[in-house]
Amino acid sequence: MDQFLEFIHSLNLRDKRNIISSIVSGSLFALGWWIAINAAAAYPLNNDLLKASHACGAIATVALIMLNSVTNSQLRGDSMFSDGICGTSFIRIWVFIAFLMSFGSLIASFWIFFDYYVSKDRNYIPGLAILVQNAFIFGSTMIFKFGRSEDLWA
Known about the structure:
The chain crosses the membrane at residues 20-43, 49-70, 91-112, 124-144. By secondary structure, this protein is an all-alpha fold.
């Protein structure tokens, strides 16, 4: 175990932070949608898998795009593009709405899972697929936003 930890410390991954977080985030996002598409193919009837539950994943995807289209320097007001209609206040409202959409879709997937599948003694696998999809997209969003470093962009 000590040799493994020495190997990890010797890799010098600080310069590869953006690459690693992008790969992990993209993999989680793709895996989440793969699980949802697989569930839709395996359970084609609306009684088995609510087709409206795919809206949670779509909203989470839009939230991912919204949240990661803004840099942290724009959010702090350090950007040179802080004047006009897209000023710091607009950016903060934009990020707040993106976080609401992201958390809301995750909470909605929990609600759908427990209300429609668990409490009514249905086959819970399709609901679990939607829940896992949204958890993966949420994790992908957070890793992609906070796992990257803007210092390495310069």
